[in-house]
Amino acid sequence: MRALLVVNPQATATTPAGRDVLAHALASDVKLDIVETTYRGHAADAAAQAVLDGYDLVVAHGGDGTVNEVVNGLLRDGVKNAAVRPGLPMLGVVPGGSANVFAGALGLPRDPVEATYRLLQAIEHGTSRKVGLGHVSSAQSGADNPHDRWFTFNAGVGWDADVVAAVEAQRAKGREASPALYVRAAFASYVSQRRRPANLTVRIPDEAPVENVRLAFVSNTDPWTYLGDKAIRLNPSTSFDGGLGVFALHSMGLPTIARYVTHLLATDGNPKGGNLLRRDDVEFVRVTSRVPVNLQVDGDLLGLCTEVEFTSVPKALTVAV
Question: Could you tell me the pLDDT band of residue 84, with boundaries at 50, 70 and 90?
Answer without folding.
Answer: low
